[in-house]
Amino acid sequence: MLEFLRQRFTKVIRVKSPSEIEAMRKTCKLAASVLKMIEPHIKAGVSTEELNTICHEFIVKNGAYPSPLKYNGFPKSICTSVNEVICHGIPSSKKILKNGDIVNVDITTTLDGYFGDTSRTFYVGTPSPEAKKLVETTYKSMLLGIEQVKPNARIGDIGAAIQKFVEPKGYSVVRDFTGHGIGKEFHEDPVIAHYGKAGKGMRLRPGMTFTIEPMINQGTYKCRILKDDWTAITTDGKLSAQFEHTILVTEDGYEILTIDNGAERILEN
Ligand code: MF3
Ligand code: CO
Ligand code: CO
Question: Fewer CB within 10 Å: N-end or C-end of the chain?
Answer without folding.
Answer: C
